Amino acid sequence: MSSRKQPKGKIRPPKKPNSADAQFNDNWDRLAQAIREIHKKNASILSFEELYRNAYNMVLHKNGDKLYNGVREVITQHLEEVAVSQVVPAFPLSGASSSQTNPNGAGGANFLKVLKTVWEDHTTCMLMIRDILMYMDRVYAKTANVPLVYDLGLDLFRDTIVRSQNYPIQNHLLEVLLQQIKLERENEIIDRTNVKASIDMLLELTDASTKDTVYATDFENKFLETSSEYYRVEGQMLVGEYDAPEYMKKVDKRLNEEEQRVRHYLSQTTEPKIRNIVEEELISKHLKTVIEMENSGLIPMLRNEKMDDLGRMYKLFGRVVKGHDEMKSAISDYIRELGKAINETVTSNTTAEGGNAASGDKQTGATVAVRWVQEVLDLKDKFDKVQNLALSNDKAFQTSFNEAFEYFINKNSKSPEFISLFIDDNLKKGLKGKTEEEVDSVLDKTITLFRFIGEKDVFERYYKQHLAKRLLLGRSVSDDAERGMIGKLKVECGYQFTTKLEGMFNDMRISSDTMTDFKEYLDKSVLEKPKLDLSVTVLTSTFWPMNLSASPRCNLPPELTKACGTFQNFYLGRHSGRRLTWQSNMGTADIRGSFKARKHELNVSTYQMVILLMFNDKQDGESLSYEQIKGESDIPEADLKRNLQSLACAKYKILVKEPKGKEINPGDQFNFNNDFTAPLQRIKIQTVASKVESEGERKETREKVEEARKHQTEAAIVRIMKDRKTMEHNLLIAEVVKQLQSRFMPNPALIKKRIEALIEREYLERATGDRRVYNYLA
Amino acid sequence: YGGLLRDILLMLNNADDYDVIIQVGKNQNIKEFRAHSNILRARSKYFKTALSENWIAKKNNLIEFKKPNISPDIFDIILKYIYTGKIRLTDESGEDILGLIVAFKEFLFNDILIYLEDCM
After folding, report:
1. Which pTM does this prediction carry?
2. pLDDT band, residue B98 (cuts 50/70/90)
3. Which domain holds residue A659?
4. Which site among B55, B102, B113 would you substitute to test the A interface, given the most A Cβ atoms closer than 10 Å to its Cβ?
5. Is the same domain home to A610 and A646?
């Protein structure tokens, strides 16, 4: 109708509504018809200008609500038709879940394809409807506070199709989607485009009450529930059928697949949720089972160094809360177990040797120590490799491994001694044929073991003993190597730990200078020169491990006594106020022996020299009894027996003993062995090598260590109290422990005893008001 | 009009590269305007939709658009406004301004309406 506007509309009032109604009806009929044409895909015959103008006129004349409701009705009607004529006929035959009648979910796939078309048609139409109703959107929808027409279309599609009250479209849709996903999980090829189209559709629709997407409200939870159930069953099946590496590969694959699935056709918001489900069902629930799988679990992987499998387990199990903890504790237990085995071989070896220890197989003791350290180092290497190659150098694992090593290393009470012996073995001259770099790298590793030792003070004591022997017997491989090792210890424990060790080196250097000076002094002197070359090493008594204050008894031959006197005069002349004590038990001598066949140069200990020189005054065949030698030399009995043993019972028999035998007993007779022969001209009579201590020695060392600890504890208490003046008992204990734990772990009872001793000696007092508080007395 | 506006207006008046013919008015009062679709689309939401792929009708490679409910005089003002962003109202009668307002409303030029309503 193209009726002209009535001029001056108020002339005929009753006619106005009629005219406006007619105008409205005309406008609306055209629009409704146009929307139907759009639905029929006939839009090309329509004029945008005219339709827009119709809608504009309706809104302009306050008929916006009628227009809006009319549009809603037309679209709803259309969608109802679509539901009946297109969607319902496409329902999969006997339910989506029946794969018997529906092989590979073809019916389902077809259903999704139909829905895809329906959805695409709907959105295309809605865009065109939005175009012609632009004026309504801009002017009416805004003021009336109703959804824009496109959003209205989405809501209608949601309520008429997706959540239709009349047809079970929603059930079918969800079932088909879940079925398609299930098929894909079972390695069927599905058409992802159709699935994606439906998912995108659900993502575009909004749930009116939650304001969330229909995807989230209708689909996601069902998807997660079925996935949970699916992987629960699969998890049980997989652990039953596969070994650990295969299991982990399957899980890896599943995680990957689910991630891909989300990326391809689900919402990104689902990604963490489905990941959690797979992780929970396939990892968390079977952690222990997989770790403990016989022949393929964590321990077999470690045993066979399956770095790839271990790395996979690390990555995979790291996804869940308890994963790494379980791995850590399993590996730690394994380390402890292996450590225990290493400790046991050592104890069984030493007890086996206990029987013939006295017979003087001196090498074996050290060998046990070296082997123990080597085995521990090998174990450390193995787990360093695991840490490095499979565990991404995870600090938490490192800490837990270290604790395990610390545990079993300290279970072996001899470990400080063993480690020191091992270092001794490596620093001894020409034993290994190793390059300096190789030795250095071994020592570096040894330092890592040293770190694990709780009783570092015990180690220090042994180290000093072994170092003393290396220095005095001239067996150190090189000064550089020794200093390098001390440097490493210094880095670990600070300078207090190494000052005494460095003092020992200084004594060696100063002694060598002193000897040069002594030779010069002798050359210039008018005195009678000694008949022998004397080499003296002056040791500062506080640096060296031996008890240097008491001079061991021994009657030296007159020539030697005289030479010693000369040196003593020379030395004390330069350093007044010092006292020299001769340690004849630690010296060596080169002497020339004339035998029937030839002359040999013998390198012997000072004691052995004293013994051998006694035979100078004897006729051939004249023997000396054990008692004679003992009486004349005054050498302590234990030392005498050992030295006689090495002269008469070892490889080079300079003396002949009657009766024959490995042991020295009172009443034995000794003869000079004139018939002695040896291929070499120069012979070294084996000196006592470093070895594992005997039980008696160990007890003695232990007592010395305990004594030293008392002093250190007292020193620490005094130091702290001097600083704080007054302190509560528990705080003081804690502080003392803190200060001492780098050397040893003091027990509170020990500290308490020391506090009491200090109170007795009036360094401290108990506070008058509170007996738990101490005051420092200046 | 000076500078840029003058040049752009020249583009409208002497258009030889136009691609839209707009037939405005009805009965005897009909006039054809030549214009550039890209400028129309850029300046007006209405034309952006009206000249979109879904709705255009072409003849001899030219887009044809009919606007019967507006008089050519008013459309001339609107078109100039589209091209330049300016309106000249010096000799417009009150009735024409009313027609102008209604037309601007239809084209969804909301910002200019406040100014025009002030003129009344």
Report:
1. 0.72
2. confident
3. 588-684
4. B55
5. yes
